[in-house]
Amino acid sequence: MSTTPTPEGLSDLARYSRAMIAGQTHACIAIEKRHGLFGWPPDIVSVGLKAIDEGADPEQAIDDYLNDSGEDHEA
Asked: Would you say residue 7 lies in a domain?
């Protein structure tokens, strides 16, 4: 999984967001499949793609997101 921007200078997260807004389902699915995120709802895919952009593990980011109780963790 590459964290480098596409030739257009956009990360896959940015491309995914733009494609989602434009209703370009085929482009969204291609990005999801490229990163092993196909089948997840768009909000979960976005969590995984953001993790990839940040150099983190997308599966761990998704697990953390899904298991977050929603509590404020700030001290």
From this structure: no
Burial of 53 (C-beta count, 10 Å sphere; 0-12/13-18/19+): middle
Rounded to 10 degrees, what is the CA torsion of 62, 15, 36, 3?
-80
The model's pTM is 0.78
Report if residue 26 sits inside a domain.
yes
For residue 37, give its domain range: 12-67
Dihedrals phi, psi of 31, to nearest 5 degrees: -65, -45
In a domain, residue 21? The reply is yes
Tens-digit pLDDT profile for residues 23-57 = 999 999 999 999 999 999 999 999 999 999 999 99
